[in-house]
Amino acid sequence: MQADNGNGKPSSNQSKNSNGKKRAYESGRNSSNQNPDSGAKASGDHEVKHKEQSGKFETAFNRIHKALKEMVKGTDSDAFVELLYSGYKNHSLVRKYKSELHQFAKLRNAIVHERVNADYYIAEPHIEVVERIEEIAREFEKPQTALSIATCPVFYYYEDAYLKDVLKVINKFDFTRFPVYDKDDKYIALLTSTEIIQWMAKHFSDSVVHFEDVRVKELLTKGKNYFVTFVDEDASLYHIEELFERYHTRGKKLQAVIITETGDRHGKPIGVITPWDLLDSDPED
After folding, report:
1. Is 13 helix (H, G, I), strand (E, B) or coil?
2. What's the average model confidence in pLDDT over 15-42?
3. pLDDT per residue as tens digits for the range 194-238
């Protein structure tokens, strides 16, 4: 039942409600007609953003692929996955990111090879994935330096130094390899803990051994020459790994890489890298 105010007109409340519904209807109608292209614009913005993320992903992937080609040598193919598996053995950086890069390779194939057309990607990488692959690409393009994993400072000795001084360093720092130089600062040999032990074993039967009088040159095994090579202070970890692998394929064991400022074998040593240092440089599982 409608309320009547006595003059045959609807009550003021009813009038307000009717006008409100009319205004709401008109407002809704005007709103729906205000921008008929808004849905198309939003779709277009998403498509542009989609292309940008896919493009960034592909660019970063190609940067890593280029770095892998320069890093991994002696492969039958320069395909990304082939380089990944070939480089796994000898390069710590590949081992660090192998799992992620393998997944990125699958995503890249979906993006590049399974397009519906040139402007439509069937797969879209999340922004977090794009940021991650760009971070890895930067690390591949600016590799870790050799000095970053080298033993520093280097304890080196002149051939007339005393054994007792070497033993003190071994006891305190657990070092096992020491470059030896002559009086003219020229490199002559690498003294190892193995040689020290062999010398001690040889003289074990002696009634008295005066370590205070034993000099480094007496410990050096005549005719024995350990394989040692020299690099400059800017050498990359890639290069060091390549050197160790090169000696290994020739059936030789590289005992140490000595770093000097310019790579000169007679320069002052500022770092030493052993096979153990390469193992220590691997990321934790």
Report:
1. helix
2. 48
3. 899 988 888 877 667 777 889 999 998 776 778 999 999 999 898
Question: CA 159 to CA 155: how far, in whole Å?
Answer: 13
Distance, CA of 230 to CA of 147 (rounded, Å): 12
Is 25 in contact with 33 (CB distance < 8 Å)?
no
**Between the CA of residue 77 and those of 80, 82, 92, 239, 283, what are the distances in Å?**
9, 6, 21, 21, 27
DSSP state of 282: S
Residue 228 pairs in a beta bridge with 256
DSSP structural state of residue 215:
B
Is the CB of residue 141 less than 8 Å from the CB of residue 67?
A: yes
Q: What angle do CA 267, 221, 213 make, to 5 degrees?
A: 85
116: DSSP letter: S
Q: How many CB atoms lie within 10 A of CB 246?
A: 14
Helix (H) or strand (E) holding 248: helix 237-249
For residue 163, count other CB atoms closer than 10 A to its CB.
22
How many CB atoms within 10 Å of residue 247? 14
Residue 215 forms beta bridges with which residues? 162
How far is it, in rounded angstroms, from Cα 48 to Cα 165? Answer: 69
Q: Which domains does the chain have, with CATH numbers?
A: 38-142 (no CATH), 148-280 (3.10.580.10)
**Cα separation values, 208 from 167, 193, 200, 204, 275, Å:** 18, 21, 12, 9, 36
| Confidence band for 34, pLDDT divided at 50, 70 and 90 | low
**What CA–CA distance (Å, rounded) separates 261 from 271?**
10
Asked if 123 and 114 touch (Cβ cutoff 8 Å), the reply is yes
Q: How many C-beta atoms lie closer than 10 Å to residue 83's C-beta? A: 23
Tokens 């069937």 sit at which residue? 122
